[in-house]
Amino acid sequence: MGKQEKVKKTKWRxxxxxxxxxxxxxxxxxxxxxxxxxxxxxxxxxxVPTVTSQELISDASSNMYDKDGxxxxxxxxxxxxxxxxxxxxxIYSDLLLSTEDQTFYKDAGFSPSGLANAAxxxxxxxxxxxxxxxxxSIEQQLIKLTVFSTSNKDRTVDRKxxxxxxxxxxxxxxxxxQILEFYINKMSLGEGSYGAQTISETYxxxxxxxLSVSQQAIIAGLGQAPSTYNLYxxxxxxxxxxxxxxxxGLENKVITKSQYKMAxxxxxxxxLKKRHWMENSVTKKILENNAYITSALEQVNDKGYxxxxxxLQINTALDxxxxxxxxxxxxxxxYYQDSTEQSAITITDPKTGNVVAQYGGRHQxxxxxxxxxxxxxxxxxxxxxxxxxxxxxxxxxxxxxxHALDGTAYAYRGTNLLAQNFDDxxxxxxxxxxxxxxxxxxxxxxxxxxVGSAKAAQFLTQIGMPQGNAPAGSQAIGLDVSxxxxxxxxxxxxxxxxxxxxxxVTSLKFSDNSVKKxxxxxxxxxxxSTAFILTSMMEGVPNAGGTAPNAKISGVHQAMKTGTVGxxxxxxxxxxxxxxxxxxxxxKSTSISMWLGYDEPMKKGHYxxxxxxxxTNVNLYRDLMEHFSKENNADxxxxxxxxxxxxxxxxxxxxxxxxxxxxxxxxVKEPESIDLKKAKEYKTYLSKTIDKDILKxxxxxxxxxxxxxxxxxxSWKKDINDKLDLTQKKLDKANDGIKSAKExxxxx
Length: 748
Prior knowledge:
InterPro entries: Beta-lactam/transpept-like (IPR012338), Glyco_trans_51 (IPR001264), Glycosyltr_51/Transpeptidase (IPR050396), Lysozyme-like_dom_sf (IPR023346), PBP_transglycosylase (IPR036950), PCN-bd_Tpept (IPR001460). This is Penicillin-binding protein. Keywords: Carboxypeptidase, Glycosyltransferase, Hydrolase, Membrane, Multifunctional enzyme, Protease, Transferase, Transmembrane, Transmembrane helix. Pfam families: Transgly, Transpeptidase. By secondary structure, the chain is α+β, with helices and mostly antiparallel strands. The chain contains 23 helices and 24 strands. Strands 6, 7, 18, 19, 20 and 21 form a 6-stranded antiparallel beta sheet that branches. The chain is elongated and about 135 Å long. The N and C termini lie far apart (145 Å).
């Protein structure tokens, strides 16, 4: 035989050319499809939004608390009480995962079994057997809640791609425990409540840790349909859903058989709170602390935080019990002439500046009503004299309490306008101490002219009262201020000259649980000698011979300055009518500033009589001060004389003092006198004294003959930003005013 020939084996593709061509074409199409899909997915992913930890935490509401941690305000109807992973009960999280994502801790950001079940249920739904169910993992649901709409009409392919991609990012960047924590706090669970801790408090007034197994199962079953399973409106459906959650938990060995039996036997309405109890409670707190909340929110804004962008947990210095007492007293009709008379009060701790309580007005029935306590639209009357006139004279010129002042009629510098004391009372010579205690006016005006606008403005700025224009003339006996400003300014006098700005906010807590504390910070606003001498002079005011003898409190050392503003003769109000009444007083522990008046002071009958200001109104101040003097930490003792003060003579209220750290001011001229016969009589709106037997002032200032065009009843209510802008403008202008006034004085 010859050599066996090799037989060539025919390749399969040649035997089945048509099939091969079909496979080849399909492969190419598949590759093109994969490439196209990959390109499409890559394009979609490019527009994926950035998701931050802040957004995942989603503590979107801001809340405010008093000094004891009680909630007094919340920013929104949608409530969020964030719960950390360590405070989430294991039973609750296990029941939740048994119901929603049993393979959560095993999956890499998505659930294969969940997707399969979702696909199978979708097919069954298409043929009319059951409903389609979602197969999203916890990560995907969290992304959906954080970034995308939950509406069915928004479920597009693009969104599912982005959702899947971001879920993978979550898986790679956060631990499973962190992701679960985010999700548990993100869910909308009905009743305007977001997160499990929130709905727990909404329904039962408890934290998750305090709930029974039954109650935890109720909340674990809410996520799929919070409206359907609303405990208030559909308890039967809730019971059925709870039992399913419990049975699933039993099958998955999340709970024991005994726990299951006990839980299913428990009524779903056990411990259920009255509907809207949280909202009603918060609303009540807001109304009780309306003025304080308004001021605290303004201070938050002043610190540079926008609550619409940065949710915060705001801790304050508010003493709710004390604020409630102040409100109860200030609401009492016995302290007023009629129901339309208004008042405003600020009470601070001189040693810290903490605003302990604040009252913004009577008959407030809605949240964020007008806060008269921080309004600067009413004149202080004589209440400003120690701060604007006599304080700078002691501080910069070293005046003693015995410094002799001219109490005769006085013409304002550069004019022939004449100021007189009430009833034309004239003092040829009166000591600074007596001038303050009887609230004489012309000595105060002369003192401001002697001190000069520049120095007076400097002194005011240091105690928190910056002025747009340097004060002069009739402002010596009346300056537009707020009770907040007066309480903190007099607090500096009480505190030996160390000033603390009004402190409402003590700390801010951010969504990442970081905390910014605002510690007590004081600054030297005046010398200790100035503060002590001012205090010693004002101690005579709530005593016989002072303007408020009815304010005297036995056993309590307090200093005080009153102020009243009357009407012009042209307004045709009774001679005994007062437009504004002020009570400013302090002890070592408490500083109180109180204003009383009417929102429409030019309306017929809207005035305070001398008798009411001397008795009824003083009684409110005295009762408040007496209450605060009885507190545990109250210090009602005398102020100790610093070494920088010499006692010249006398004892007690008759003691006379001088600073021994005084400075010598060269080139100071006493105010010039003029021929009274040639002067045009000008009785400015000088402050009345409360004791009409001592001294009064007739007011004939054209400025009060009609209601100012700029004055509106609603003008008490200030937009936060407007108030901040105004304050900044005052600060900006203060230096200009001081500079120009200084140049004017130096040029004389």
